[in-house]
Amino acid sequence: MAWELKNMRPGYGEALKELGKRYSQVVALNADLSGSTQMAQFGDDFPERFFNVGIAEQNMMGISAGLATTGKIVFASTFAMFATGRAYDQIRQSIAYPKLNVKIVATHAGITVGGDGASHQMHEDLALMRVIPHMTVIAPADYYETKSVIMKIAETPGPFYVRLGRTNTPVIYDENHEFRIGVADTLRDGDDVTIIAMGLMVSKALEAAKVLKKEDISTRVINMSSIKPIDKSSIIKAARDTGAIVTAEEHNMIVGMGSAVAEVLVDSSPVPQSRVGIPNVFGESGESEELMEAYGLKVNHLVEKAKYTVSMKR
Amino acid sequence: MLLAFDRNDYWSDLESSIPTLTPITVEARRWIVKMIHAARSGHPGGSLSTVEVLTALYYKVMRHDPENPTWPDRDRFVLSKGHGAPALYATLAMCGYFETEELMTLRQLGSRLQGHPSMNKTPGVDMSTGSLGQGLSIAIGMALGARLDRKDYRVYCMLGDGEIQEGQIWEAAMAAAHYKVDNLCAILDRNQLQIDGPTENIMSLSPIYSKFKAFGWHVIEINGHDLKEILLAFKEASRIHGKPTIIIANTVKGKGVSFMEGSLKFHGKAPSDEELKQALDELGGDI
After folding, report:
1. What 3-state class would DSSP assign to A41?
2. Residues of A in contact with B133 (CB under 8 A)
3. What are the φ and ψ backbone dihedral angles of B162, each rounded to 5 degrees?
4. How would you list the strands of the sheet with A26-30, edge to edge?
5. ipTM of the complex
6. Least CB–CB distance from B168: residue in A58, A72, A99
7. Strand, coil or helix: A20
8. CB-based burial, B63-75: b 16+ in 10 Å, e otherwise
9. Contact present, B270 and B42 (Cβ < 8 Å)
């Protein structure tokens, strides 16, 4: 299947620049990764509202919180590893607890960071952010959804965590796509099994659905970009309609999106569920595609899990 | 009491205001020991050491309005050493942000007065703190916000001395000088003790003066219980351009209560019934 590939990060950079034009209250902070996170364009256009604090993520989160108390709409960016790991307590104490209007947009999440290896491959960020009260957590599926997410969160008060990857990602949507907080997007209908995916796993799920169709398994595909709040009704409906759920995420299987789905199912309509994701291990260097294969994130892995989950149905 | 004032002449009656401030410090100390006694937990030592600075700020230095706690033009105060909350609550209540009777609800389930400051619960609290080392970064953000909005409010941030062992303080110290936030004034409550012992034994901080100087700050060192020195230091800070100021306020932990002064035991322990009585006897005053 030939996908058009487009990086999510320019979607962020372009949206942020547009927000800078639209709202004088938008300010942006970075910790020496303004080029990689695509915040540099905003900095060029609005130098007075851009603060590169150097390699000091904890301080960046604190200054972001302080600016938010004065009515600013604050975007803070660095790599997912440093945003959520290095500055966890600052996010918890100074941003989430006081419910301040800080949008943490982290790039380079997941195993597909590639060559940099385990120190930079963040598989735990969703777990860390999901568990913090007041925090909204979003993982867009592609370039267009990223743009829509960024525009939407700027207009929604409160703390947000947005997770972006490094690599080029298959284009799922077009410029008319409108992301809604707490609403999942059903991309393909089906009766036998549902694959709930996020980020670059959404395209893999759509490919898996085509493979499964050849084996007479009708597969629903849902893009669960709003991880918290999660769209409970679409999960429950998928459980009732298809009776089997597979989740697919480029994240540690512990306390990631799959766990969030499982929490909904166990409370309301338990059905067989399988999770595709990264096991509880550190990553390693390699090419993105090689790593996806090595860590079980390819289409064939999804197909196998889907068939297994269907077989578990009573 | 007029708490909002014309910034141009608010230093004019500086020395003459001291006799009116002294009784306020006594009242604040009485509330601090009473509320911590009632709560049966809390941090008397590091609350009592901050009283003169807080009194000077809220009764003389800061532009604020208890009738309008979120007034956009107000000066801000960040209690980075959040465990000093009882001193802040006493000061806010006495200024009129809420009734002083409410002080006795400190740390109770459902109270607006949390063990550490919470900006969304307590009127007058400008930032939620408690996890040490974070307040200076917040204060920089507030100061930059004033600059972006072309507002003239000032930001005050009180740090504990043990607290500056946190690395984030030095990230912030670097950034404050880099951004030249001269509307930011930090106060270091230099009471020499942290929970496990003297700061210089646990992890030495000296020389604090030259450390901040080297980071590009204007540094003033004073007796943190002398109201005149405190007021003069804030006046000096307000006239410094192009760099942030830190006031190193040399204080005594537990100040004002003999058996709490310099006592490690009262870093984080409430007084017993007898200790409360003795403390109130020593403090004098009549509330």
Report:
1. helix
2. 58
3. -60, -30
4. A50-52, A26-30, A73-79, A102-107, A160-163, A136-138, A226-228
5. 0.96
6. A58
7. helix
8. bbbbeebeeeebb
9. yes
CATH class given for the domain over A185-311: alpha beta
Chain A touched by B33 (CB under 8 Å): no
Handedness of CA A63, A68, A70, A71 (dihedral sign): positive
Domain A5-170 carries which CATH code? 3.40.50.970
Contact A61 B126 (CB under 8 A): no
Provide the pLDDT for residue B2: 43
A66 near B CB under 8 A? yes
Nearest to A258 by CA among A291, A282, A280: A280
3-state secondary structure of A258: helix
Class of domain B21-283 (CATH, top level): alpha beta
Query: Is A293 part of the annotated catalytic residue set?
Result: no
For B120, which of A66, A89, A99 is closest by C-beta distance?
A99
Helix ranges restricted to H, chain A: 8-22, 40-45, 57-69, 80, 88-90, 125-130, 143-154, 201-214, 232-242, 257-268, 288-294, 299-311
B143 burial via Cβ count (<10 Å: 0-12, 13-18, 19+): buried
The answer, yes or no, to whether residue B4 has pLDDT greater than 80, is no
pLDDT score, position B14: 78
Edge-to-edge strand order for the sheet containing A245-252?
A: A185-188, A219-223, A193-197, A245-252, A273-278
Report the C-alpha gap between B171 and B176 in whole angstroms. 9
User: Do B128 and A97 count as a contact with CB atoms less than 8 A apart?
Assistant: yes
Prediction pTM value: 0.97
A5-170 and A185-311 share one CATH topology? yes
Segments in chain A below pLDDT 50: none
Best mutation site among A46, A69, A74, A89 for testing chain B: the one with the most B CBs within 10 Å? A69
A30 at B interface, C-beta within 8 A: no
Domain locations along chain A? 5-170, 185-311
What's chain B's length in residues?
287
Task: Collapse the DSSP code of A248 into the 3-class scheme (helix H, G, I; strand E, B; otherwise coil) and give the result.
Answer: strand
Phi then psi for residue A27, to 5 deg, are -125, 160
Cβ neighbours of residue B268 closer than 8 Å, sequence gap 6 or more: B41, B42, B43, B45, B83, B195
